[in-house]
């Protein structure tokens, strides 16, 4: 499949790149899910720990399912080029399930869990940006999202004792910016989709 990136530079892309272009709307949905979670955190800053855990668990499950779907939809090409997306999806699904089944965890454990998840997802996104940089000019958006996730995770690990309201706001801002970057990439990929 010939995909155009940048201004007018045609390049050869297949496998994951073709799937990202064909299924651009999965990135859009991941972005919308992240923004919805962030907005909920802003609207209900006094959420109880159980409610925050459940809302975050729902977001992690949705993000994981959409990431896994995008990885599995990539037909052709090398499997190695999409393992990072599949692994990130599996990690998110497992994190969401843990959040649902262990809603009684303490605030500190929840924060450490979210921090670890963010760092793992960030590493997977940066790896994906490295894999796609040769065929996608906009791969930097994926890398930026990964760097943001890692910085967020490190910040949570470094400041676990921050007040509950500050943590909810921090999580909300992370989710909104994370979602915006996913949506920006989805919109850019949509431009390269050829009509059926």
Q: Can you characterise this structure?
A:
The chain is mostly helical. The chain is 73% helix and 4% strand. The chain is built from 7 helices and 2 strands. A two-stranded antiparallel ribbon has the order 1-2. Helix 1 packs across helix 2, helix 2 runs antiparallel to helix 7 (164-190) and helix 5 (107-132) packs antiparallel against helix 6. The longest helix is centred in the last third of the chain and has 27 residues, at 164-190. It is elongated and about 45 Å long. The two termini are 13 Å apart.
Task: Furnish the topology, listing elements before pairings.
Layout: E1 2-5, E2 9-12, H1 16-22, H2 24-43, H3 49-73, H4 83-101, H5 107-132, H6 139-158, H7 164-190
Helix pairs in contact: 1-2, 2-3, 2-7, 3-4, 4-5, 5-6, 6-7
């Amino acid at each position: 499949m010939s995909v155009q990136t940048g201004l007018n530079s045609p390049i050869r892309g297949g496998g994951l790149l073709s799937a990202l272009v064909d299924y651009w709307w999965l990135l859009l949905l991941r972005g919308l899910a992240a923004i919805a979670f962030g907005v909920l955190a802003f609207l209900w800053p006094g959420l109880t720990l159980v409610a925050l855990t459940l809302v975050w668990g729902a977001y992690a499950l949705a993000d994981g399912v959409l990431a896994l779907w995008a990885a599995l939809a990539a037909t052709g090409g090398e499997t190695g080029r999409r393992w990072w997306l599949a692994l990130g999806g599996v990690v998110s699904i497992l994190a969401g399930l843990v959040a649902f089944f262990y809603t009684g965890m303490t605030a500190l454990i929840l924060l450490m869990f979210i921090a670890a998840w963010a760092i793992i997802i960030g590493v997977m996104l940066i790896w994906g940006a490295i894999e796609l940089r040769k065929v996608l000019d906009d791969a930097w958006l994926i890398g930026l999202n990964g760097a943001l996730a890692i910085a967020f995770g490190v910040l949570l690990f470094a400041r676990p004792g921050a007040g509950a309201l500050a943590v909810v706001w921090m999580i909300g801002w992370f989710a909104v910016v994370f979602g915006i970057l996913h949506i920006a990439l989805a919109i850019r990929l949509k431009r390269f989709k050829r009509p059926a």
